[in-house]
Amino acid sequence: MNRKQFLWLMLAVVIMCGAGLALFWQDLTAYRDSGAKIGARLLPPMKVSDVAKLRLQDATGEVTLAVKDKVWRVEQRGGYPADFAEISGLILKLLEAKVVQSEVVGASLHGRLNLLAPDKGAKEGTGTLVELSDAAGKVLVSMVLGKVSLKKDPMNPLPNAKDGVPAGRHILVAGKGDNVFVVSDPLEKAVARPGAWLAKDFFKIDRIKTLQLAGEPASSWKITRDEEWGQWKFAAGGGQLDPSAAVSANNAWSGLSFTDVILDDKTGTDKAVTFTAQTFDDLTYTVKLAPHTDGDYVLRFSVAGTPPKTRKPEPNEKAEDAAKRDKEFADNRQRLEARVMLEQARSQWAYLVPGKQVAPLLLKREQMVVAARPPQKNGK
């Protein structure tokens, strides 16, 4: 290679480097203008307390969570109290989310990342719209949560992890143009189902003294016991009660949960059976169960009565023991009164409960009786 050829080659290299540097600065300028610095906050600075309304919408549903009377409530469930911990947790995750990846994606490609807004009518490629608003109803920020990004995890043995585990989420923020951001949290709790946001505290019946199922004569039964840890028996005789059936029915009342709230207060009322439970705390619970769909049940309940104000002393009780027990009794009574107050507030709604949870309660009387032993051969 002669000197002239070498100079031409060097000139070509300089021109190519200059063009590359120009493109680099062009991309860098666009990157800076978008505010999409890696490690930067996804959203502008704000506090959790600035948010008084959270709306989520996807292709199939919508939920609006708003503060009313200083309590977060689910609008689509008649103002039923919402789970504050879940709401504040999601808001905090959004406010603290940091960008781990950013790129400009044209609007025609948003569907591939599930970033189409649900209010556009399309279902294919639709994401979850999330709006944070203040107490005056002003939208503070609006975004669409799109496709969940997966990360390979060879050490995870679960079958559903073969394609990877959730490791992030694509997000399109209003006002940021076509800049698509990826954050390191999959935000799986951000669902547009009202039932997912309900406060899950429920009524609980414990220390049951008498439990009765009223319905068809062949199905009805009433069981009782004289003391809390005593043996269960049929209240009116008529066979030997199966202890395991009685214990299962008793225990079922302390572990009930619900999946949703029913607003139609007439759902299944014509097919409902009624339970009455009287407790050693002088409380009476009345519960109606009616079959719903897919094996679930609609439950309605009420609670009446007042816990005893004084404790019955034990025989030959010492003064120091009495003082300790009196304090324990007063503390327990205070907690019980608070629980009953909350239960009475919750009793105005109807609930959807899983069928498997109430199955031990729906045994017919014949199923509550100890099965007769088959006759033995040869007198044995």
Quick structural gist:
The protein is an alpha+beta fold and 380 residues long. 24% of the residues lie in helices and 27% in strands. The chain has two domains: 143 residues; 161 residues, no CATH class.
Order of secondary-structure elements: HEEEEHEEEEEEEEHEEEEHEHH
Please give the alpha-carbon distance between the first and last residues.
114 Å
Q: How much strand content do the residues show?
A: 25-35%
Biggest β-sheet description: 9 strands, antiparallel
Quickly count the domains: 2
Number of helices: 6
Determine the mean pLDDT.
Answer: 87
Q: Order of strands in the sheet with the most strands?
A: 4-3-2-1-6-7-8-9-5
Number of DSSP strand runs = 17
Q: Give start-end ranges of low-pLDDT stretches.
A: 23-35
Structural class: alpha+beta
Shape: elongated
Could you please describe the fold and organization of this structure?
This protein is α+β, with helices and mostly antiparallel strands. The protein has two domains: 48-154 and 162-197; 208-368, no CATH class. The chain is built from six helices and 17 strands. Strands 4-3-2-1-6-7-8-9-5 form a nine-stranded antiparallel β-sheet, with helices on one face. The chain starts with a helix and ends in a 12-residue tail after the last helix. Residues 23-35 have low confidence and may be disordered.
